[in-house]
Amino acid sequence: MPVHWNTTYAEAIDAWVEQLDKGLTGQKKAAPAQKKNKLTLTPQDWEMLESIHEVLKELNSVTEQLSRATVLTLPMLLPLYKHLQQHFIKSQKAFTGHDQAPLHAACDAALSKLNKHLNIALKMKLPLLSAVLHPAIRVCYFENSDLWEPKVAVHAQQLLEDTYTEYAEAVKTAQSNLPHQLTSQKPQASRSSVFAAAIGSGKVAATESPELTCQCPSKLDVYCSNAYPCTDENGTLPWWKVHVQRSLLCGSSLI
User: Fold this and answer.
1) Average pLDDT, the chain
2) Burial of 101 (0-12, 13-18, 19+ CB in 10 A)
3) Bigger pLDDT: 252 vs 225
4) Which of 23, 74, 176, 230 is most buried, judging by how many CB atoms fall within 10 Å of its CB?
5) What is the percent of the chain where pLDDT is above 90?
6) Is residue 1 part of a domain?
7) Which InterPro entries does the entry link to (predicted)?
8) Domain for residue 205, yes or no?
9) DSSP string covering 93-112, please?
10) CB neighbours of 238 closer than 8 A, spacing ≥ 6?
11) What pLDDT was estimated at residue 192?
12) In sequence order, what are the residues at sequence separation of 6 or more whose Cβ sits closer than 8 angstroms to the Cβ of residue 118?
């Protein structure tokens, strides 16, 4: 049966089941009628389907986020893993009825698999380093103790400091070769996405970050203080391009 764009899923499925034996008689009707009785959904069945849809909807959102073109996906890995972890925990707690036992077990299996890959990612250097180098995430996101163990933020800070030290000399060398004009970047409108929701969970920690009190803070201190916020979740590379150029020309920016 053709499904119109303004037809709900429930109406479409009901209509399809209803027409299975339409216009049939005798032996030709027997098999479709049996199939119709088997596929007719009860209110409890619809509640189950709705619950499944709510669980899978977030997986679909994450898949679409990571499938977008011209978007850096590596910095998104840990925040999205954590976002899905919290989603499955919340969903699992909601499935308390006896008839929801399969959904509870499914969430438990999903959490087991997700936690395995989250732990693997945390043991690797690039997922964490790329996250703290994303100006919309930084170290403060991992300082949220409701989401992350304290050692994660400590490790993230150490990775950032080691990387800064490693590339400091290269930046000094590049200073003499930089054109004497900054490239301006037009701000892009921030859009709502599952990634924005994921990193938004770290805003509490960000607002609690200590202000710079010393007269000569290091460039890493300035970066970690979120003194130069990035409002566009997809504007990582333009943000770095502007601030690295400003740093090389003026010697007083954040990196």
Assistant:
1) 78
2) exposed
3) 225
4) 230
5) 33
6) no
7) RNaseH-like_sf (IPR012337)
8) yes
9) HH--SGGGHHHHHHHHHHHH
10) 185, 188, 232
11) 67
12) 78, 81, 82, 85
- Which tokens hold the place of 208? 């609690």
Task: Return the pLDDT at 109.
Answer: 96
In a domain, 151, yes or no: yes
Number of domains in the chain: 1
Question: pLDDT tens, 95-151?
Answer: 988 889 999 999 999 999 999 999 999 999 999 999 998 888 889 899 999 999 999
Cβ contact 128:76 at 8 Å: no
Domain span holding position 228: 44-178+194-250
Q: Which of 52, 144, 146 lies closest to 107 in space, CA to CA?
A: 52
Q: Please state, in angstroms and rounded to a whole number, the distance separating the CA atoms of residues 146 and 90.
A: 14
Q: Which DSSP string corresponds to 172-201?
A: HHHHTTS-SSPPP-PPPPP---HHHHHHHT
Query: What average pLDDT does range 10-30 have in this prediction?
Result: 81
Provide the CA 48 distance to its chain's centre, in angstroms: 26
Judge whether 77 and 139 are in contact, CB under 8 Å: no
Please state, in angstroms and rounded to a whole number, the distance separating the CA atoms of residues 118 and 112.
Answer: 10
| Among candidate residues 230, 228, 224, 58, the one with its CA nearest the CA of residue 142 | 224
CA dist 36 → 2, 24, 39, 47, 85 (Å): 18, 13, 5, 20, 38
